[in-house]
From TrEMBL:
The chain crosses the membrane at residues 35-53, 65-85, 92-109, 129-153. The lineage of its organism: Bacteria, Bacillati, Bacillota, Bacillota incertae sedis, Caldicellulosiruptorales. It comes from Caldicellulosiruptor obsidiansis (strain ATCC BAA-2073 / JCM 16842 / OB47). The keyword Metal-binding does not apply. This is Stage V sporulation protein AC. Keywords: Membrane, Transmembrane, Transmembrane helix. It holds the Pfam family SpoVAC_SpoVAEB.
Length: 159
């Protein structure tokens, strides 16, 4: 390949040439465009959530409206994943589709659908939290640690 300096060793030279070939043919990404799309689609998802919150707030107290909004958005994320629509949104929007709560629903439902053919125990049951599991483990663990620290600071203010 032009412009690539490779060692004399044949194995190293072939590896170097291969890397140059890969680099020359890899698709170019437009980070600015991807950031704009992620921002717009993520914002649109949040706007839908806000619309549900406004709707529910006119019928229920604010606490209940917030819970209903979360439930609705999780349902929509799971439902659209089941229909195969959320994957298309994710391909188009990138990170904009995984940040809202709908992305969390997608991360649970998607592996469950993928591994359904392996059965409910070894497929759905064991693979459902494949993506979301680490997030839950570290999120819950961190919240417990922060709660314990908060408790210790409140009980023993001199610490």
């Amino acid at each position: 390949m032009r412009g690539v300096l490779c060692k004399v060793n044949i194995k190293d030279k072939k590896a170097c040439e291969y890397q140059a070939l890969v680099k020359a043919n890899e698709p170019k990404t437009n980070s600015f465009k991807n950031c704009i799309l992620a921002f717009l689609v993520g914002g649109a998802i949040c706007d839908v959530g806000q619309a549900f919150l406004n709707l529910y707030s006119s019928f229920f107290p604010n606490d209940e409206a917030q819970v209903l909004t979360s439930i609705t958005m999780i349902f929509l994320g799971a439902f659209l994943t089941g229909l195969g629509v959320y994957d298309k949104i994710g391909t188009f929007a990138g990170a904009g589709s995984i940040v809202p709560i709908t992305g969390f629903a997608n991360s649970i439902v998607s592996p469950a659908i993928e591994y359904k053919k392996e059965g409910f125990v070894f497929g759905v049951g064991s693979k459902m939290f494949l993506i979301a599991g680490p997030v839950l483990v570290y999120g819950i663990s961190t919240s417990i640690l922060v709660g314990l620290l908060y408790y210790l600071v409140k009980v023993f203010p001199g610490i």
